Amino acid sequence: MREKETTLYLGPQHPGITGNMMVKLKVAGDTVVKAETHVGYLHRAFEKLMEQRTWMQSFPIVCRICVPEPDPNEENLARAVEEIEGREVPERAKYIRVMALELSRLAAYMLWMGGQSGGLGLYTAPQWSVGDRDYILDLFEELTGGRIYHMYIWAGGVRRDLPDGFKERVLKTMDYFESRLPEYDKLIFDNAIFKKRTIGIGVIDKEKALEWGVVGPPLRGCGIKHDVRIDEPYEIYDKLEFEVPTVEGGDIYARAMVRRREMEQSISMIRQVLDKMPGGPVYNKVPNPLNWYVPKGDAYVKTESARGEFGYYAVSDGSLKPRRVHVRGPAYVHGVSLLERILVGANISDVSPIMNSLGVCPPEIER
Amino acid sequence: MEELKIEKEIAEEISKTFHSAEVTVKREKRVVVKLRDDLITPFLSYAKNNMNFIHLAHISCVDWLEDNKFELIYSLLNYDNKVMILAKTYIDRENPEFVSHTNYWDQAETYEREMREMYGINFKGNKRLTEFILEDWQGIPPMRRDFDTVKFSQDTFYNRPGRENAQDVRTTVTKKSGEEIPEIGKDYTVRNL
Amino acid sequence: MEINWSSVIGIVATPVIAFIVGVLYGGAVRKITARVQNRYGPPITQNLFDIIKLYSKKTAIQHGVMQHLGPVFAITASVTSLYFIPVIKDSPYFQNFSFNGDLIFLLYMMVFGSLGMALGAGQTGNPNSAIGVSRGLSQMVGYEIPFVLALVAIMIQFKTTSLNELLAVQDHFTNWIIFQSPLAFVAGILAFLGMMHYAPFDVVIAPAEIASGPPSEFGGKYLGLMMTSGSIFAFVKLVLFVDIFLGGASDFITLIIKTFLLYMIPVLTGIVSPRFRTEQSILFFWKWPTFIGILAIIVVVLNG
Amino acid sequence: MYNDKDAKKIVDIIQSYARKHSLWVVAYGTGCGAIEIPPTMTSRYDAERFGIRGSATPRQADVLLITGYLAVKTLKRVIRTYEQMQAPKFVMGFGSCTINGGMYWDSYNTINALDRYLPVDVFINGCMPRPEAVISGFIKLQQLISEGKAEGAEKYLKNLEWYRENQNKVIPNWNMPDYNW
Fold this sequence. Notes:
The structure holds four protein chains of four kinds. Chain A is an alpha+beta fold. Chain A is built from 14 helices and eight strands. Chain A has helices at about 45-50, 60, 70-85, 90-120, 125-145, 165-190, 190-200, 205-210, 215-220, 230, 250-275, 330-345, 350-360, 360-365; strands at about 5-10, 20-30, 30-40, 155, 155-160, 295-305, 310-315, 320-330. In chain A, a hairpin with a 5-residue loop joins strand 7 (about 310-315) and strand 8. The mean pLDDT of chain A is about 85. Chain B has a single domain (about 1-160), classed as NADH:ubiquinone oxidoreductase Nqo5 subunit (Beta Polymerase, domain 2, 2-Layer Sandwich), CATH 3.30.460.80. Helix content of chain B is about 25%, strand content about 25%. In chain B, the strands form two sheets. In chain B, strands 1-2-5-4-3 form a five-stranded mixed sheet, covered by helices on one side. In chain B, strands 6-7 form a two-stranded parallel sheet. Chain B starts with a helix and ends in a 16-residue tail after the last helix. In chain B, about 35% of the residues are buried. In chain C, helix 2 crosses helix 10 and helix 3 runs antiparallel to helix 4 (about 100-125). Chain C has helices spanning about 5-35, 45-55, 65-85, 100-125, 125-160, 165-170, 175-180, 180-195, 205-210, 220-245, 250-270, 280-285, 290-304. At the A-B interface, helix 1, helix 8, strand 7, strand 8 and helix 12 of A face strand 3 of B.
């Protein structure tokens, strides 16, 4: 006997949804029979707007594509311009870029930690982790002037050098974070109920993961070692010592543990960067930003963000403005085709944790 | 030259199998293949099944209004040697139609839905070419070059006039510092260039 | 006709006191939670402001008669249960209606409110409410079993179904039932965790899953009524447990201390726990608490 | 001794005091500004000190926080959410893009002036506003409530036709139920 099917609209106004999107669920009893994602609530037509602005005017736009973690976007656009132009970046700028990227990865993981455990009803965790995340935002504010949107990395380097004493403050914050990690372990990752709610839930098939286009922590949670930072090292990642953690299982817990271990790696990377950072200028001489003709050509660049591989395909027709910038966010695949697939058969209670663990970020899907 | 060994092998294999393909090794881990539009499907199938390019990173579209063509770009990644292939082709802009690749990759469906909506390309074989991002859109697909977003925005939405005593930030700053604004920098929007 | 003034005063004062204490406890819980979460927290009277604001809402959408009756049922059930519990031991003011079989009556009365809510929420037509109701009722089945087992063990042991007689047994703190019948206490307190609807047993109102569950469509005065009823009902449950296991209270200060300490058990558990899924929480109640409850009955029967 | 006017006034004072100190914000992250809401609500800035709390459904909420730009598709849902809320209800426009479109002034999919479509009580400018700015916006709203000036809901009801006309202009397919508070 089949149970009666009902339709459940999860969103767009719903506390369990990550951002502003809608998942239309067909449920029989407590089990999801069919899931359909509806996106477009955050469509701002960034790719169109970039065609209206010069390359440099596009930087304030791209960082708004992914709100929790804007730096990989800036990095991507900067590297795309540099690749088309063949522009050199000073060594110091590369170190500063890696520092900013790792700091923002850490901030994104703190926010994810809050979302993941808050969705499971552990309301103390978001209070702690989002509060701790603010220490990183303070660093960013000092470095770039903005808490959320930095517009710091640009073609040819970074906007300005580190302030005085910034290195010490970063190290101090890293020490603090390292001292907090065991407490988060106690509260979240070793919590018996957390394990009960996450192990064996939202499993991604390891065999199919590559074909489905899974990237980032969800892929590493399937036990597959794939990370842009080692596969195609950009900036100075080939000079840093770090490992890419993988966990077997493919469930929410495996993805959580991947992120948890990457936080340690990020902290150690930031320390290495600060240790090895050379002196020198932070940007080379660049043309007037409003008169910056980028030669004809195209480039596909990618960066490892907190949710996976962020790819930009940029085309220049030799004029002031981009011909086309195509943004390929990790959530584009995770949030639509993958989510629709792995939600089938899940319990309604697990929909929100699964979305959180995949890092579904709607602004990336619709731009 | 030693570093690009794998890339050259891949390029060679492609040009051996697809004689008409124009293969270039762009840089480390990037191979660009230009193909006739009817060769895209066999190429994707070959790359996926025989050359282990199992990851479809993205499908992108560029509007070349001057040439009256759409350029489609399929990006594939090989997980073993991490090489990326960009397969490019041109299709007609007047009556844009192409083959769907949803049976090769699940996620192709999403890209094709978006391109249908944003460029108006009809992908034959995709069963779910429904509304994706926009809702009740009337008029030409917005990502086409001939769609004027500024005009549309001004016609449709209310534009609040600025303050009358508003001062131009750049003039104020340059007046203080005594610099001169370069001719090119006088127009903020650079739309008229 | 002779009017017993002390009981009239008691009847009027009991719900008022229960409401005030319940509301302040709610505020205190929010404050304590905030302190655990590294923040300052709202004022202790915050829940009172919330309730006044809800009552002063100008509009309240109504979906039908049952939706109107739902909160009314809930508040009736809480106030009625309150009247059958001796709030202060041996005080003429707070005996209210307690009678010989009140323990059994309370078992039914405490379920009544939830059922009323279920009917009311069912009529709103919101799928979140419907799912929340089904979750609430299944979870109730879970925790009622150990709770009933614990009560039955006590009833057999002391051969009474009256709260007043149970209170009379516990004349000295060494005679408290928590020490006389520890197994029943353990089963009862585990069921109590479920009854208070704090994490990990808050799946009924889980915001990330079903918005706010049964009250999704209730706003304004209805929600105010429900919050009032919730505050009173929290106090009812606390007093009932204090009366049964902790020897009751002969004055207000003892009552406050005992109920507050008891309240902290579910609250502090809740702060550090994620929530169980429905079937997990039912399984939880049907495993150890039920086993301990049965064990308590067996021990009582064997001791004769 | 007790005349009706004074008695009513006391009730009013209590009401507005309670309203002011209990603002429930409907959990609807309509735009990118939603990223500053978690810091505002959590331990660093702790908006619960002022009685500001999240609320899961619009029926229970008092404040609709429009966090940034509104895509046309979202505007339709926002209007529906707003109409489901129970009066007295308040709207806060968050970020520059609710005022004049901000950096999305030329986008074909985002509205440029929020107060043409919904009655806004308080605007917070900035892109994006810091949590301190959000809290100061809430305190401004509290002031307006205690002065009795936050009457967006009445304004909306009075000028419903004008708002409807504007809304219909940007939303091509208006298939929503009628206004039912």
